[in-house]
Specification:
The structure is a single chain. The chain is α+β, with helices and mostly antiparallel strands. The chain folds into 3 domains: 94 residues, Sandwich (Immunoglobulin-like), CATH 2.60.40; 119 residues, Sandwich (Immunoglobulin-like), CATH 2.60.40; 225 residues, 3-Layer(aba) Sandwich (Rossmann fold), CATH 3.40.50. The chain is built from 6 helices and 35 strands. The strands form 9 sheets. Strands 21-20-24-25-35-34-31-28-29 form a 9-stranded mixed β-sheet, with helices on one face. Strands 8-10-13-14-15 form a 5-stranded antiparallel β-sheet, covered by helices on one side. The chain has a 4-stranded antiparallel β-sheet with strand order 4-3-6-7, with no helix packed on it. Helix 2 packs across helix 6. The protein starts with a helix and ends with a helix.
């Protein structure tokens, strides 16, 4: 056990040592804060001519402080205006001034320490920059029509080796490269041109940029109707450098001749069917009509379809009446579903006759735009129409029709609520064993939709050219187009 005297002696010794230590720590003069030092990855860049750097430059720097730590940096390109940053690097777009393709940028950077002291001798580096010429490119659409009615879409792409930020704008024109181009912002990559008066010999065109529903405040005046046209576009960068013009493939812009468009949706044999329809129209006094062979192909490519559904809808919107006929219901209903809303919204009226094969998916959504609620497709049974069978009208004033061919597959129609049955047919049912018997189910093959009492859509699930056994198909056309639609 430690004695009391020993404990006292030890305590006095500790106090003495503590006082001595404190006196030693506060002696001497306070040293001033030393400035930080700043460094870049190199101190000299020697490049000339085509070896100069691109306008987009990645610059790196760092700093150290002998008696503290670095809290940030400031950089400048003119030595007077400094920008603060906490980063050790950044990407800069060093564009030459307009009219020049080369420039030397003097970059300076200085570190800031924890007491706010800046490096009095900033690190500096001269960047010799050469502007790279931008490029423009026409982008083909999903479909590229060789000819089109005057609702035309073109797409393009601009690029710059110095980066997208170095692009200033686009300049485009039609047909005449000596004319003054139209300037549009660099964020646009397509435009649609729609004739204000598609039936005139010449017309101004409204311009819709990208997928805008509202036209721009300017109009295009240099598209030629009933002639071949080419679209030219170039990209301009921040230094004023211009790319060469990119040019579209030539295409023919057709002037609209009438209020009515025949949409021929047959892939083969379309001339014969088209002739039947033109003959019926001429028989009721309609001598002028336009025709669009929507699925005609050349070398496996559609040659008359617009690049996308929005543009196709604008083509349909040039007309007041559409007569659509074809043998591929899947393709026709799909396209019409996606492209005719605008046509109907502005009061357009459609007459459609479509062969609907056994492969058509009656559960698809492609019927939503039609007066059809559903199609009848019984399991293990095929519904048919025999030759010389008579179709009876359900609406007053419509003629009886007689079939001129056996139709191996018929899809009877269940009309949507509010639509009217126009025709029924004496159909046959063939079971899986091939036995024929009269079909006793739904026998509707044509229906009419009326909106607020006004008829606007007549549809048949039978091809009309196969129902002219009495030579009176023109009476059906007269009843639908003139009496009902008010052509």
């Amino acid at each position: 056990m430690m004695k009391r005297g020993q404990l006292f002696f030890i305590s006095i010794s500790i106090v003495f040592l503590f006082i001595s230590a404190c006196q030693t720590g506060i002696s001497g003069d306070l040293q001033p804060n030393l400035p930080p030092e700043t460094h870049t990855v190199t101190d000299t860049i020697k490049r000339s001519g085509d070896n100069r750097l691109n306008s987009e430059v990645h610059i790196r720097w760092w700093g150290d402080d002998p008696d503290g730590f670095v809290t940030g940096y400031e950089f400048s390109f003119d030595g007077s205006v400094w920008t603060h940053t906490a980063s050790n690097d950044s990407v800069f777009l060093l564009s030459p001034p307009p009219g020049s393709d080369t420039v030397d940028f003097h970059f300076r950077v200085r570190a800031i320490d924890n007491e706010g002291l800046r490096d009095p001798s900033p690190a500096g580096l001269i960047y010799p920059v050469k502007n790279s010429r931008p490029q423009a490119e026409i982008i083909p659409g999903v479909f590229e029509p060789g000819s089109t009615y005057p609702a035309i879409k073109v797409s393009w792409k601009g690029s710059d080796p110095d980066g997208f930020d170095n692009i200033s704008h686009f300049e485009y024109l039609w047909n005449d490269t000596t004319a003054d181009p139209t300037v549009i912002e660099k964020f646009n990559n397509s435009a649609t041109f729609v004739a204000l008066d598609p039936r005139a010999t010449s017309s101004d065109f409204e311009v819709y940029l990208n997928n805008d529903e509202t036209p721009q405040g300017f109009r295009e005046q240099h598209i030629v109707l009933n002639d071949t046209n080419r679209f030219y576009i170039r990209v301009v960068d921040n230094s004023g450098a211009r790319s060469p013009y990119a040019v579209s493939a030539p295409f023919f812009v057709k002037r609209v001749q009438s209020d009515i468009l025949l949409v021929n949706a047959y892939v083969s044999g379309f001339q014969t069917v088209e002739s039947f329809y033109t003959q019926q129209l001429k028989a009721i006094g309609i001598d002028r009509m336009d025709t669009l062979r929507i699925f005609e192909q050349k070398a496996g490519e559609y040659i008359n379809r617009s690049p996308d559904n929005l543009t196709q809808g604008r083509v349909f919107g040039l007309f007041d009446y559409i007569i659509w006929f074809g043998s591929n219901a899947q393709e026709s209903f799909s396209l019409a579903q996606k492209s005719t809303a605008g046509f109907f919204n502005r009061g357009g009226k459609m007459m459609m006759a479509m062969y609907i094969s056994s492969s058509f998916d009656e559960q698809s959504q492609f019927l939503e735009f039609t007066p059809i609620q559903s199609l009848v497709n019984p399991e293990d049974t095929t519904i048919m129409l025999d030759i010389n069978d008579t179709l009876m009208p359900s609406l007053p004033g419509y003629p009886a029709l007689v079939s001129t061919a056996i139709v191996g597959v018929v899809k009877p129609i269940v009309p949507e609520i509010g639509s009217e049955i126009a025709y029924t047919a004496p159909l046959l049912a063939r079971d899986k064993n091939g036995t024929l018997s009269p079909w006793t189910g739904v026998r509707n093959v044509m229906v009419m939709r009326r909106q607020q009492g006004v008829p606007n859509f007549f549809i048949s699930s039978l091809e009309l050219q196969k129902l002219n056994g009495l030579g009176n198909a023109d009476e059906l056309f007269r009843k639908v187009l003139i009496d009902e639609f008010g052509y």
